[in-house]
User: Fold this.
Amino acid sequence: MANKKTPEINSSSTADIAFLLLCYFLMTTTMNQDSGLQRRLPPMPAEDQKVEDQKVNRRNIIVVKINSADRLFAGNEAMDVSQLKDKIKEFLTNPADDPNLPEKKVKEIEGFGAYPVSEGVISLQNDRGTSYQAYIAVQNELVKAINEIRDDFSRANYGKPYASLTEEQQKIVREAVPQKISEAEPKDVSKK
Amino acid sequence: MSKFRKGGKKSTPLASTSSTSDIVFMFLFFFMVTTNLRKTENKVIVKLPEATEVAKLERKDLASYINIGTPTRHLQSQFGTDSRIQLNDSFKTVDDIRDFIASERESKSEADRAFMTVSIRADENTNMGIVTDVKQELRRCSALKIMYAARKAEK
Assistant:
């Protein structure tokens, strides 16, 4: 009686149980990565503060408008979304130093040296009736234009695309080619 | 007879299956860790717009989500088909965003509050009007880091 061993618990079903749980998690899991276009909103001006007219030279601003019918205007020209990228690139790089395109200010960039940084600002305006899809499409084109300029810059200076630069180099490139997109105060265009 | 063959009629031993459960458990833990169970029930239909230049959100734990879209079909009889804002688990108005942001901020650690990102998940057919209202309210709450959620389009 005394030397009778306790019988071992049959553990062959643990694997089955674990498989069941595994299948459950396999089914419910969503490995979607959150992705999107990141932006920084301008801070709200204090209410008692007067809205100062920011003295930005007219040549330094390109107004990109999307109306309620999702039509696109860039610099008072109606155009298709596919044309926008080249327009923005031309605006921001200003290769021929056109007096109607933004001026460049030589800026001392730490770790790189002096570089003429474009003063251009993209002002994005939309109507309340604009569809979100069109808005994102335009935002995407703007980012694409800036990314391509950054890529050109880093290829010219480092011989590598922007994505494979080190973090410090990326910072320099970001400083040389800033992403200045201003999402304007909403204006009610539909009131008329 | 060699030393190592004692019982001639011994059959080949069965492969030990005791480690299968360990392997499976390892898989299980992997999926348990990577899975993110949906905390809130989606009450609005959100089909994200496509974009090619999307960037990944680095700190998922610091993100708050604002869903904008038409209510799901079984809720349409109650709430109509107009675009609505969903915060956490219920339909809210633009005015509730302030409280929502405040409570979200409260739940993050002090050091991380500056990096909090508000992800605007709006349906592609939403009008910009409601998105603009949300943006203005976010500016008022000084939650300035935002992200327009979008799907990565095939190039």
In short: Chain A touches chain B at residues 11-12, 14-15, 18-19, 21-22, 25-26, 28-31, 33-44, 66, 126-133, 135-137, 139-140, 143-144, 147, 183, 186 (CB under 8 Å). The first helix of chain A runs from residue 14 to 28.
